[in-house]
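queue> pop job 88
queue> type: inverse folding (structure -> sequence)
queue> payload:
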């Protein structure tokens, strides 16, 4: 028998709303639109309770071990309000300015420090990100700090690097509306450093190109050569 709505876990209520709207809720999706006031704190408490069960299944005595007594609460807070905040928080406000001077030269922003987590093992991904832009007279200009805020919002979710920078590119194309956009990310994956092959040297570098960066070989080469010079 299904429990009354007010007795259901908050995660079940949120999941039901998302499914009713026929929206996706993959690990790297933002679901803030489906959260109601007070539910984030309730979700944190639910995660805390379930992580206590994980610790019990790992045969860790959290009652007498002072180091792990509040670990479940700390981990829940870390996931919901810190490292996975980009799933539950709305996008940061970004003030957009018209391109009054009709700027149309290459702009590069970076390196932006990024922190994420692999959705396969929930291990950290730590790296740097660069953005290249070719604005036009119809583009919006945004403040330098806003690139970092948007990157943090996108990256603070469990995901894989290839999809993360694609999301970043799509967001910037929507906000700035440039002629061309390039995003390059270089990162360490702790799922390789900490487990598995335990290779501490390997890094992953990938890129997404849109518009003129995709079509113009000279522009793409200029952008990549400037990145190499600044690294």
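queue> result:
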């Amino acid at each position: 028998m299904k429990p009354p709505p007010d007795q259901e876990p908050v995660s079940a209520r949120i999941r039901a709303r998302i499914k009713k709207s026929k929206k996706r809720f993959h690990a790297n999706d933002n679901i803030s639109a489906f959260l109601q006031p007070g539910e984030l704190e309730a979700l944190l408490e639910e995660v805390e309770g379930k992580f206590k069960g994980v610790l019990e299944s790992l045969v860790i005595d959290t009652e007498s071990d002072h180091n792990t007594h509040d670990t479940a609460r700390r981990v829940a807070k870390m996931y919901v309000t810190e490292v996975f905040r980009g799933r539950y928080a709305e996008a940061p406000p970004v003030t957009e300015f018209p391109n009054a001077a009709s700027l149309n030269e290459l702009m590069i922003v970076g390196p932006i420090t990024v922190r994420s987590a692999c959705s396969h093992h929930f291990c950290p991904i730590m790296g740097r990100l660069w953005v290249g832009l070719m604005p036009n007279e119809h583009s919006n200009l945004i403040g330098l700090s806003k690139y970092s805020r948007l990157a943090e919002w996108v990256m603070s979710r469990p995901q894989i690097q290839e999809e993360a920078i694609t999301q970043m590119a799509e967001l910037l194309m929507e906000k700035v509306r440039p002629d061309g956009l390039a995003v390059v990310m270089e990162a360490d994956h702790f799922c390789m450093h900490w487990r598995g092959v335990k290779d501490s040297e390997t890094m992953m570098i990938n890129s997404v190109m849109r518009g003129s960066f995709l079509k113009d070989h000279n522009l793409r080469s200029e952008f990549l050569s400037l990145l190499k010079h600044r690294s």
